[in-house]
């Protein structure tokens, strides 16, 4: 089957919610309404099995309605399930194997032996800018592979929420130094880009007020970076926290995403809807 004719299934996979959009290919492409399952997750946020069960049920129902065989599956994973490090510029690294070994070393510096149970991936490498290395539990990776095999679909991509969101809007960032932040229920994830390089990354649980913890995390990362602009630019994507009340007079300038020019991908979370299941029309 020509790839041009393969249906595309896009998934957002998080604790307490799974979103799915299917695009039917053919003489005229057609996108189905988004299906969102939002449910109470009584287990620890890092546990992925309830979401996997939700995804399996959604695929079963979709397959019963219209066969999935031959489709391509792309999954965006919540930052709850991700671990990150910045891989700093290394101009002497030109071989992919060397890059992977160096990324593994960086991961072990931060996370220790837990790395042995993870699958790692690296975003596009630039020896002058560095890159971001992301990791997920190997068990989760294998379960997603097995699920794709069960429905005879091709697992085309697994991507982290942070980098997927960054890629969506990065062309609109003209600042020489900026922060990019993604906030989910119970978690915030941020990165600093400055002087043409990836400078730092932080992925943490939110226990108290979102506003308080965001500002505290930014201040801590300012200390870690060793430098501060009079006004620090922050691009913020927080679709499930649309009522944030952030100050405009403490050295931070917040720009909220999505903007008028670049919308959010249709399968990304939108404000949580009442009920355990909702269908929203694509506009």
Report on this model:
This protein is an alpha/beta fold and 283 residues long. The chain is 25% helix and 33% strand. It has helices at 49-65, 96-111, 138-150, 161-169, 210-225, and strands spanning 8-14, 17-24, 30-31, 34-38, 72-77, 83-87, 118-122, 131-137, 154-160, 177-184, 187-194, 197-205, 232-237, 252-257, 277-280. Strands 1, 2, 3, 4, 5, 9 and 15 form a 7-stranded mixed beta sheet that branches. The chain has a 5-stranded mixed beta sheet with strand order 12-11-10-13-14, with helices on both faces. The protein has a 3-stranded antiparallel beta sheet with strand order 6-8-7. The model is unreliable at 273-283 (pLDDT under 50).
Task: Report how far the terminal alpha carbons are from each other.
Answer: 29 Å
> Uncertain spans, ≥5 residues at pLDDT below 50?
273-283
Main sheet attributes: strand count, strand direction, barrel closure: 7 strands, mixed
Mean pLDDT: 89
Order of helices and strands: EEEEHEEHEEHEHEEEHEEE
Record the SSE blueprint:
Blueprint: E1 8-14, E2 17-24, E3 30-31, E4 34-38, H1 49-65, E5 72-77, E6 83-87, H2 96-111, E7 118-122, E8 131-137, H3 138-150, E9 154-160, H4 161-169, E10 177-184, E11 187-194, E12 197-205, H5 210-225, E13 232-237, E14 252-257, E15 277-280
């Amino acid at each position: 089957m020509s790839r041009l004719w393969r249906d595309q299934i896009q998934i957002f996979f998080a604790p307490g919610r799974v979103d799915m959009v299917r695009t039917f290919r053919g003489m005229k492409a057609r996108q189905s309404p988004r299906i969102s399952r939002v449910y109470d997750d009584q287990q620890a946020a890092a546990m992925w099995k309830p979401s996997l069960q939700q995804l399996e049920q959604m695929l079963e129902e979709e397959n019963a309605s219209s066969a999935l065989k031959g489709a391509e599956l792309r999954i965006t994973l919540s930052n709850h399930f991700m671990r990150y490090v910045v891989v700093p510029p290394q101009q002497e690294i030109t071989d992919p194997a060397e890059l992977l070994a160096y990324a593994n070393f960086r991961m072990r510096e931060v996370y220790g032996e837990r790395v042995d149970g993870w699958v790692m991936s690296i975003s596009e490498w630039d020896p002058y800018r560095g890159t971001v290395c992301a990791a997920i539990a190997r068990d989760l990776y294998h379960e997603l592979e097995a699920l794709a095999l069960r429905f005879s679909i091709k697992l085309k991509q697994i991507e982290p929420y942070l980098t997927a969101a960054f890629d969506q809007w990065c062309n609109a960032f003209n600042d020489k130094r900026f922060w990019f932040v993604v906030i989910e229920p119970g978690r915030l994830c941020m990165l600093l880009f400055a002087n043409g390089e990836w400078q730092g990354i932080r992925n943490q649980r939110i226990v108290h007020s979102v506003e308080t913890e965001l500002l505290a995390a930014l201040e801590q990362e300012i200390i870690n970076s060793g430098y501060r602009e009079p006004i620090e630019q922050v691009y913020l994507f927080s679709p499930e926290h649309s009522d944030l009340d952030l100050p405009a007079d403490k050295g931070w300038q917040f720009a909220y995403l999505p903007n008028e020019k670049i919308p959010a991908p249709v399968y990304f979370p939108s404000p949580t809807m009442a009920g355990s299941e909702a269908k929203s029309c694509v506009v």
